[in-house]
Amino acid sequence: MKIKFLPLLAVFFAATSIMTSCLDNDVEQITYTSETSITGFSLGTLHIDRVGKDKNGEDGAYVDTLDCSNYPFTIDQINRIITNKDSLPVGTYIDKVITNITYDAGVLAYKPKGSDNDTIWTSTDSIDFTEPVEFKVYAYSGVEGKPYKVTINVHQQEPDTISWKKFDNNPFSAGNLSEQKAVYANEKVYVFGKKNDETTCIEYTKVINVSVPGEKEPKDNPTPWTSVTNVPTDIDTYSATAWGGNIYFLAGGTNKQLYKLDANTNDVTPVGTETFEMLIGGNDTKEELYAVINGVSHTYKNGVWTEDANPFTLFPAGKPFFSNTTTASYNSDITTTIALCNSTTANDTAALVFNRISSDNKWEKRMQNLPLPNLENVTMIYYDGKLYAFGGGYGEIKPFSQFYCSTDNGLCWRPVTECMAFPAEVPDTENPNREYINFPDLYDTHHGNYSCAVTPKLENGTSRGNFIWIVWEDGSICRGRINRLGFTPKW
Q1: Tens-place pLDDT, residues 92-112
Q2: 95 CB-near residues (< 8 Å, 6+ apart)
Q3: What CA–CA distance (Å, rounded) separates 96 from 105?
Q4: 373-409 b/e (C-beta count within 10 Å ≥ 16 → b)
Q5: Kind of pairing, strands 81-83 and 148-151?
Q6: CA 34/CA 138 separation, integer angstroms
Q7: Three-state helix/strand/coil letters over the chain
Q8: How far apart are CA 327 and CA 409, in angstroms?
Q9: Do β-strands 45-53 and 59-67 pair in parallel, antiparallel, or remain unpaired?
């Protein structure tokens, strides 16, 4: 029924009130409320696109039902706005929505999509919410309430799928770099690498809080690469390690010396007089740095290098180590540090994983129950609370074909088959303008020269950070992030 009948109803209500007031005082008078608030809003069962296995085990699309009654809606009574801060899953149909609404006494009306006239709402109405819909309450007293704008938010991205973007306009200022290792510190990604003339260098790009002309808010896009000046010659590029908010690395040929790169000023200074073979990683929780001196493992703490009580001697030389430290869930005083590299031993089919438990204060070679394949140029990152590894090919495995994930500190590595993945190699014929990034081709084009760093989530209530940065031989960058880690916080 169109709302054009409502004015007649309003006149009737008013007339009724007047007639009642003219009767004898013994007759009870009726006063109608003028409240026009919506006090509750919820959804019923909606339809949603799904992908599942058919009887032949093949992926297929189908339409399922979704109970949306528990999705909370916030009612802003001052601004008359109703919305769900927790968006509905991607693929949810909101063009035919059954609603449950509570409101003050009177008549509730809404303006359907494409109509200029109000319609009386009933609980069986199927309403199109692909655009915001206005609702208003007409009180029995004849008062017309101010309209509420109702918006139903639906995620436009699969929350657990990773999205990628490529930046091609930022070549290294030093030219192509091989033997790379990337580390993150102080809103910048630093890349250590070897130039074509065999000399070494350090370049960095700012990746957080980057001002963009015409934009009110800064972005997380990379700035042009900048060379760090006054660096020592013959840097061990694989030794770069982020620790204590700065970067440490080795340089100096056979008898390497430890250097510190201040991430605030980019100044480089030597640290101590010891000579090293390898730098393994750091443990910020325990304020410890790990290295190999005179062939055995040492620990740096409180400004002093000390040989481990149970010295470890099996770290292979000439390889980049990727390390991560986590705190035990059962005891905050205990940490586990994992270090990973690929093996150069001919018969090794698995990458090398080493672990150090702070309560034991010693390194051990981890015996993997589900081993990580011995990927060429393997990289390990800590992302979304898990360890991920990827890299070049091995055997039948193509380069950058998939991530391997470990949730138990490197004991078991399982290939990730859904969501957390590199883009498909096949172009989308239905969306020819969609950008595809072919990682295997990029790996081959750049001769296997790449590095990777991860920016942490910014702790300022925004949706920024949480990016994976893959830097290629020429300085071009692929940036990825799991979609849900970029959703703006709602609560």
Answers
A1: 999 999 999 999 988 999 999
A2: 128, 129, 130
A3: 26
A4: bbbebbbbbbbbeebbbbbbbbeebebbbebbbbeeb
A5: parallel
A6: 8
A7: CEHHHHHHHHHHHHHHHHHHHHCCCCCCCCCCCCCCCEEEEEECEEEEEEEEECCCCCEEEEEEEEECCCCCCEEECCCCEEECCCCECCCECCCCECEEEEECCCEEEECCCCCCCCEECCCCCCECCCCCEEEEEECCCCCECCCEEEECCECCCCCCCEEEEEECCCCCCCCCCEEEEEEEECCEEEEEEECCCCCEEEEEEECCCECCCCCCCCECCCCCCEECCCCCCCEEEEEEEEECCEEEEEECCCCEEEEEECCCCCCEEEEEEEEECEEEEEECCCCEEEEEECCEEEEEECCEEEECCCCCCCCCCCCCCEEEEEECCCCCCCEEEEEEECCCCCCCCECEEEEEECCCCEEEECCCCECCECCCCCEEEEECCEEEEECCCECCECCCCCCEEECCCCCECEECCCCCCCCCCCCCCCCCCCCCCCHHHHHHHCCCCEEEEECCECCCCCCCECCEEEEECCCCEEEEEEHHHHCCCCC
A8: 11
A9: antiparallel
| CA distance linking residue 449 with residue 179, whole number of Å | 7
Q: What tokens appear for 467 in the block?
A: 């990016």
Place of tokens 């979304």: 384
Q: Which residues contact 12 (CB under 8 A, 6 or more apart)?
A: none
d(CA 483, CA 343): 34
The CA-based dihedral angle spanning residues 260, 262, 266, 268, taken in that order and rounded to the nearest 10 degrees = -30
- How high is the pLDDT of residue 424? 63
Distance CA 284, CA 281 (A): 10
| pTM for the whole structure | 0.77
List, for residues 295-340, the tens digit of each pLDDT value. Answer: 999 999 999 999 999 999 999 988 899 999 999 988 999 999 999 9
d(CA 197, CA 180): 15
Q: What is the mean pLDDT of residues 279-290?
A: 96
- The amino acid occupying position 198 is E
Q: How far apart are CA 116 and CA 4, in angstroms?
A: 11
